[in-house]
Structure formats: C-alpha cells, structure tokens
Amino acid sequence: MILSGNNLTGTLTSDLSALTALQYMDLSNNRGLTGALPSSIGNLNNLTFLILVSCGLSGPIPNSIGSLKQLFYLSLSSNRFSGPIPPSIGSLTNLVWLDLTDNQLNGDIPISVGDVSGLDKLVIAKHFHLGMNQLTGNISSKLFSPNMKLIHVILNQNNLSGSIPTTLGYVQTLEVVRLDGNSLIGSVPDNLNNLTSVSELFLSNNNLTGPIPNLQSMNVLQLVDMSNNSFTATDFRTWFATVQTTTLTSLYMENTSLQGQVPSNLFSLPQLQSVVLSNNKLNGTLNIGSTFSSQLTLIDLQNNSITNVSGNAGSNSQVELILMNNPVCVGSGASASYCRIQRINSTFSPSSNCTRSACSSEEIMSPTCKCAMPYSGSLNFMAFPFSNLNDASIYSSLEGTLMSVFTSSGLPVDSVTVFNPTSDENSYIRFETQIFPSGQVSFNRTGISSIGTLLNRQPPLLMNTFGPFYFIDSSYCCFEDMFARVKRSSNTGIIVGTAVAGSFLLVLLMAAAVYAVYQRRKAKKATTEQNPFASWTPEKGWGGIPQLRGARLFSFQEVKKCTDNFSEANCIGSGGYGKVYRGILSSGESVAIKRAQMGSMQGSLEFKTEIELLSRIHHKNVVALVGFCYDQSEQMLVYEYVPNGTLRDSLSGKSGVSMDWMRRLRIGLDSARGLAYLHELADPPIIHRDVKSNNILLDDHWNAKVADFGLSKLISDSLKGHVTTQVKGTLGYMDPEYYMTQQLTDKSDVYSFGVVMLELVTARAPIAQGKHIVKEVRMAMDTPNELQLILDPTLDTSLGGLEKFLDLAMSCVRDSSDDRPTMSEVVRGIEGVMQLAGINFDSRTVNNSATSGVTPIGGGLPPVYAR
Q1: CATH no., domain 364-481
Q2: Where do runs of H (alpha helix) occur along 765-857?
Q3: Which of 383, 377, 368 has its CA nearest to residue 423?
Q4: What is the pLDDT of residue 862?
C-alpha cells in the first residue's frame, strides 16, 4: 500500500486488521490523516515496512505494534504522537530502522525489565532516531551494548537528564551521535574516544562538566559541537593537540571555558569550513596563518579577550571574521570590519541557463528548460557534515545524488533542484526541493507516491553521503487525474453519457461475468506456463530449461541449515537488496549467501536470467556462483566465500590492514583481468555496470575477485557496440557519457575501473566533501608538488611506476568513451607499471605469499589468519 503524498483525509480505522497479507505500508505526507493509530495495526503480522511520516496522527503509539514480528522499518516521524514509547517495540527483533522524530512522546526510553522488553533488545537495529520529543529520565546504561549494530543515535532536543552512559562508548559501529539540547550532567565518558567511526558529534546545550573530552582516536570527525556546557577551564592549545582528524569541517565550541591562544594550525585543517569559539576566555594574538583551508568561510570569536590580529586574518575576503567584544575592537580598532557582524545567511538559489519562456502561473521552468509542475517539499537533514551552505558543489552533488537515486529506481523524474538552505533551532539543515516530471507537465498519483516512498525509505546512496533525513512535501496541486477531466466536462455530456451507459449496463454486467470466468482460467494457465521455474525442482529435473553450467539448486531448508537459521552471527554484510550470510555446506565448503529482502526481489524471469548469466562466468578473478535458491518465495544466490572483505574496507583501514604499493598493483591487475574476461572472453560478453571498490573482494591470499552482477548486461545482441538502457550504477563511479546518453558500453566499465585505480593510489572515496576524486587528482597532477598531498599517506614516498599508473588511470576516465583504452589494454598497462616497479606480475608469483604486501594496523595478524 503506497499512497504517499496523495492528499488523503480521514482516520485509520480498525478495519486495517483485515489486510493480513500486507507487507508494505506507506501513507506518508498525508496531513489530512488524523486521529489515533488503531491497535488493530498489530494484526498485520506480515508487515515489514510501516512508514507514516508527516501525517496528522495523534494519541499514543499502540502497544500492539510489538506484535509486528516481521517489521524491518518503522518510521512515524513528524506527527503528534504522545505518551510513552511502547516497550513492546523492543520485541521487534528484525527491526533495523526506528524513527520517532518530531512528536510529543514523553517518559523514559524503555529498557527491558524481567519479561518486559525494551529498546536494548534491538541488537540489530542501526538507527535510533528519537529526537525532538519530550522524553525524560536518565539514559540507562543498559540501553547500549557491544553487540549492537547502531550507526545513528539521535536523541537531541528532549528533556533527558543524568549522565552519558559509558556503555555508549562500546558501540563501535556508531557514525552519528546527537545528545544535544537535553539536561545531561557529569563528565563525558573517556571511552567515547573509542568511537573511531563517528563523523558527527553533538553534545551542545547540556550541563556537562569535567574536562573537555579527548578526541584523539576519533580521526574521521567532520563536525564537533560541544557548545554551552560547563566544562573545566582548558587551554585551547593543549586540548586541540588531541584532535587528530584531518576531515574536520565544522568546530563549534561556544561557551565551553576555553582559554589561552588560538593555535594557528587549527585553520590549516584541509576541509575546515566554520569555527565558532565565541563566549570563551581566549586571548593573545589571532593568526590564521598563510596556509589556511581553502574552504574556510567563518571564524566567530566574539566575546573573548583577543588583543591583536596578525597576518591576513582580518583582510581576507574569503573568511568572515567576527571579533566583536574583544579588546582588539576597542579604541582605534573599533572601525575594523571584523568588529561588527556582517554574517550573511545562506540564500543559495539555483542558477539557470534557460531562455525565459511563457510558463503558466502553475508551471515552473525546470533545469532542463521545460515548463512543468514540480513536486515540492523539503529535505530535512538530522546530521549534515557541511557548514558552508554557499558552496555550489554541495548543491550539484546533492542534486546529482537525488537524480541517480530516482533514475536507478526507474521513476519518471526529469530533473531536480535544491535551494534555499536553512538551519533551524535544532541544527537540522533544511533544503527546499523541486522534483520535475519527465515526459509530462505534471505527475500522476503513482509518480508522487513512488517518489515519496523512495525518499521516506532513506536511499543508502543519499543517506550515506549527506546524513539521515526526512522528507516533508508540499501538497501537490496538479495531479493528472481522469476524474478531474470528467469533472470539467459539461453537464450535457454527463447526462448523455449516463443515458448511454444505462442502456448497456445490463448487457455489460452479463458479459463481464462470463469474461471474468474465462480470464480466471486463462490467467491460471498462463501463470503455470510462464513461470520459468515451474520445472526447476529436484523431483522434475531441469526439463527443457537451458542447462546451467555448474550452478546448483538449493532448497530453502538447505540454506537455512547451513546459515544456522540465518543467524545474525553469520551476517557478513547488508545493503538495499537484503543481507549476505556466511554458510557452511554439508560438504564443508564455505559460501556467501545473498538473500533478497521483500521489496527488492526481482521477477522470476529476471532472477532466472541473472542465474544463467552468472553460471557462464568462470575465471579466477571473478567470484564464482555456487548455486541459487528459489523456494518458499525466497530469492537467494550462493557464491564462493571470499574471506578478506572488500577492497574499499582495506583501503579505508576498516579491515585492520595496510597494503603496500606492490599489493595494490597486484589487486589492480587481478581486477582488470577479471573485467577483461567479462568483456572479451565470456560467452556472451558481459558489461558489469557497477564496478567499484566495494564490488572487488579479496580472497585468503589477498587476490582480487570481481563480484556482484545484479546490474550486469549482456552485449551479444548489440550491433552498435552499446546497449540503450536505463541508467544504473553508483554515484562517483558512473560513466558521465552513459549517464547523459543512456548508451551503455564496455567503456563504461573502463571509466568506473579508472576511478578504482585512483582509489588504490589515494585511498579516498570517489566523492568526499562534495569533491570528485577524478577532478582532485587531475588538479593535483597539473600543480607542482601537489600530487604528494593527495596520495594515501600510508604508502611509501617512492612508488615505482606511479606516474605511468596515474596516466593510465586518467586515460580510463576521459570524457569520451572512444578515447578510453579497452580492459585488455588496461591489463597490459598495469603489467608495464609492475615491471617499472620491479614486480613480477606472473600469477604464480603473486600467490606465493598470502600476506605479501599486507601489514596489520596496530600489530597482530590480519583477521583471516588470526582465526
């Protein structure tokens, strides 16, 4: 049931209980839906998604919601729910997403006591979004535990009291922590410093005391806000020496008892955008140095004791410096520009190259110069890593990500505009958004509902890049409805139409009855005949179905047994498609089982096609398909188990190892050979379409294997060398020519592999801080002495063949596909680089030492050898 944004009104009644087969329910952005959520919701035992964002619902959340044992995703944000959070939510053991933001909920955060459940039981949940409510009481130490998978803990703007529990520091998966706007007291636990994956930390507007927390190990922090607390007086230089992150964009330490001189090296952090240190006891001379961040736009030091400004701190037009109510602004210095507030709020609005044309009063000119009626609303980010909201690259990146999400989902969207950013009192960043229809002037109801439910499900590509958010729409005015056209017709037409319809009504009813019986029989027969799996059973054999080359058919019970009933202990990965489990077959072979979740499953014909494609692939540098399961409404693919994770994990340090230049070149060669096989030797040839470092797996000898063929395309039937197809792939790796023309070629894979090559050298993500790795490397190569700054700092400074490797990578990412090499040419190019580096690229030598070129970070053996 997907009816998001359809201007529904009325109440939800107990009749909901009749929809016992319902699995997905999204009624979001229907503010005319009022009243209580009926307790009969608990009868929908098959429900996996319940999304009711921005309706007009009120009253308590019924305790019966704990009966929805299959529930995976629960989002009730931006309503008027009141009363306590039902403890029964803790019995939803499959729940991954819990969002109750922006309601009127009160009472404690429920914790299990005896037989009564609590939120501490949600050990596989990744999201606790409980901000902007009226919750009270302490945050119990039982709420968090080391076996939790949480990445977001958002509890801001409540009335929570007591101290921050030390158990929060045990949840190593955390990426965003928001505890701001409460009444928390005591010291910040020392072990919060252990949360090495946290990128955004909000502790502001509490009553915290003790020392300002040490951030030494939190080396991926982007935003820190600890303003308005009662920390012990601390010398800024001493505290800042503990900050090891080079990713910091925003530092907010207003009214935190900082004293002493501001260190100039603060401003040289390469990603820094905003520094707010007002209302402290900072003194001495302010010097931002000559090598301050090129992204720095704001330094707010008002109400301190700064006596002097040196260097170009006060004259640089890029940086807005505010020093009001400091000694430097007394007397003759009072006229300086930094002695008055000049801050200008972000008013970024979209630019347009369109020639103005006559659009109607309801129509707006789209970025592609078409008059249309866009679907408008706001994206409200609960955590947003960027503070310079006048940076045009943020908007282009956000718009590009949205378009990638819409396009890959097949939605009728022509273009997207985001503009007019605002920061509310909760430090949530809001972007006004316009989504323009494709091929028509306005959206129909299905289009609006599809867009709404996609955004309400938080597409990983969008959330992982910009942070968690919720979408609030503006009621759509312009549905293309048949009923609206009928209403506009003349009364005469209605009378005539009614008379004619009445004359034939009896005949039509009789004909419909006969036709219905006929169609029912025909549909039943067609279902049996068209099911491509109808004869794929152990009892019937393969029949006339094309023989699969080595792929085995598994029953659901076999897969269930080898994964220990799909236990969380065997879960080794997850994504939008579902989860991946490690399993042990009866033969003792280790396998990886990719299990599609409801909502991401393909049709049976598409699933059969993918299996046939995968069964054709046999190469040492491509992950092999062992078999599949199509049983009990399940779709599962069984692959060989590749134990050392993804290339991305190893480059980022997440896997706990560091790879030298030799190993990286060998991984590049392995991957290139796998792709060259797909393009030139597979029968028929295959375009992967989603080449990225997350789809390159490393085996127990650290050899690379190309994986995940969910988006792949056969090219045997193309006489033009390309396949015209819907654009799909991953932002940052996607071939821009394919994106613009929708013509997919093997050179699209070459472009994506070129991005992977740049990752091997820099260890950077393809898009970081709104900047694309291709542009960053190109600029560094064109500027003397800049290249060394962009290389992975864990690599040695002397890398044999580096220049040739980068030239090869940049040839792969040329704008025109005709100018890019083939994958075979890439293979030969990497072999040439390895010869320059003095490395034997023969595969027999590469495999001689399992750990050659791989060094554990922090000592010990890599995980696969420690087992």
Answers
A1: 3.30.70.960
A2: 773-782, 787-790, 802-812, 823-836, 843-846
A3: 383
A4: 36
Lowest mean pLDDT among 92-101, 533-542, 579-588: 533-542
CA distance 109 to 139: 7
Q: How confident is the model at residue 170 (pLDDT cuts 50, 70, 90)?
A: very high
Q: How many residues does the chain have?
A: 867
CB 476, CB 391: distance < 8 Å: no
CA distances from 448 to 30, 333, 474, 540, 776 (A): 12, 57, 11, 45, 37
Write down the pLDDT at residue 725.
Answer: 64
Residue 113: DSSP 8-state: B
What's residue 600's pLDDT? 58
Q: Are 799 and 837 in contact (CB under 8 A)?
A: yes
Q: Which comes out higher in pLDDT, residue 86 or 736?
A: 86
Give residue 391's pLDDT: 73
Share of the chain above pLDDT 90, in %: 45
**The CATH fold of domain 647-865:** Transferase(Phosphotransferase); domain 1 (1.10.510)
Q: Give 106's strand partners.
A: 134
**Across all residues in the chain, what is the average pLDDT?**
83
- Our measurement of the distance from residue 351's CA atom to the centroid of its chain's CA atoms, rounded to an integer in Å, reads 27
Of the pLDDT bands very low, low, confident and very high (cuts 50, 70, 90), residue 779 is: confident
**Residue 295 near residue 272 (C-beta atoms within 8 A):** yes
- The amino acid present at 262, given as its one-letter code, is V
pLDDT at 349 over 60: no
Q: Where are the alpha helices (DSSP H) in 180-313?
A: 236-240
Q: Answer whether CATH 3.80.10.10 is correct for domain 1-123+135-143+158-165.
A: yes
pLDDT at 110 over 60: yes
Tell me the two tokens of residue 820.
């890019």
Residue 553 has pLDDT above 90, yes or no: no
The DSSP code for 569 is G
Mean pLDDT of 661-687: 91
- Using DSSP's 3-state secondary structure scheme, residue 319 falls into coil
**Extents of the domains making up the chain:** 1-123+135-143+158-165, 364-481, 552-640, 647-865
| Partner residues linked to 639 by β-bridges | 592, 625
Which residue would you say has higher pLDDT here, 399 or 111?
111
How buried is residue 177: exposed, middle or buried, by Cβ count under 10 Å (0-12/13-18/19+)? buried
Residues linked to residue 696 through DSSP beta bridges, in sequence order: 706
The residues near 771 (Cβ < 8 Å, ≥ 6 apart) are: 393
Residue 807 annotated to the active site: no
Asked if the domains 1-123+135-143+158-165 and 647-865 are classified in one and the same CATH topology, the answer is no
C-alpha closest to that of 579 among 591, 562, 557, 597: 597
d(CA 404, CA 398): 10
> How far apart are the C-alpha atoms of 648 and 692, rounded to whole Å?
8
| Collapsed DSSP state (helix, strand, coil) of residue 16 | helix
Residue 276 has which token pair? Answer: 């707010």
CA dist., res. 253 & res. 43, Å (int) = 49
Lowest mean pLDDT segment, chosen from 237-251, 447-461, 469-483, 599-613: 599-613
In single-letter form, the type of residue at position 428 comes to: Y
Tokens of 170: 């045990």
Please give the average per-residue pLDDT across 668-680, as a whole number.
94
| Integer Cα distance of 646 and 649 in angstroms | 5
Regarding the domain delimited by 552-640, which CATH topology (the fold level of the hierarchy) does it fall under? Phosphorylase Kinase; domain 1 (3.30.200)
Cβ neighbour number for residue 692 with a 10 Å cutoff: 23
Catalytic residue among 690, 699, 735, 749: 690
Residue partners of 150: CB distance under 8 A and separation at least 6: 125, 126, 127, 128, 144, 171, 173, 174
For residues 367 and 395, what is the distance between their CA atoms, to the nearest angstrom?
A: 13
What is the distance between the alpha carbons of residues 769 and 465, in angstroms, rounded to a whole number?
9
Give the phi and the psi of residue 160 in degrees, each rounded to 5: -70, 145
- pLDDT at position 841: 54
